Amino acid sequence: MGEIRSYRCNACDHDFSRHEGRGFVVQMLYCDRCGCSRQIPTVDDKPVSITCECGGSIHESARPRCPACNSSDIGDDTGPFSFGVIKWD
Ligand SMILES: [Zn+2]
Ligand SMILES: [Zn+2]
After folding, report:
1. Ligand 2 center from residue 71 Cα (angstroms)
2. 19 has a pLDDT exceeding 90
3. CA separation for the pair 52, 31 (Å, rounded)
4. Minimum-distance ligand to the CA of 16?
5. Which has more confidence, 78 or 42?
6. Which whole-number Å values give the CA distances from 84 to 23, 81, 89, in the listed order?
7. What spacing in Å lies between the alpha carbon of 58 and ligand 2's midpoint?
8. I want to staple 59 with a disulfide (CB 3.0 to 4.6 A). Which of 43, 49, 71, 80 is the partner?
9. C-beta pairs of 20-28 under 8 Å, 24+ apart in sequence
10. Shortest CA distance to 37 belongs to which of 24, 19, 54, 55?
């Protein structure tokens, strides 16, 4: 089951959230270079890695990047979103 988790950027203090993990139907992957997201069908338990247009690789365990300044200096999970961790699938 996927979750929405919230993070805070250490560089610009921007708060953001992202979908993580895999649902029954789709899973979210992230680029470790530009931070873009890719939604792919959940097929099996094999780790998936896709080459991004930016040259980075898109995979499940990529660290979050700030959507505002693209910094990878992201604090760990700031804890539950104000309304808790949301299951999205
Ligand atoms: Zn930032
Ligand atoms: Zn990329």
Report:
1. 13
2. no
3. 7
4. 1
5. 42
6. 18, 5, 15
7. 7
8. 49
9. 21/60, 22/60, 23/88, 23/89, 24/89, 25/89, 26/89, 27/2, 27/60, 28/2, 28/60
10. 19
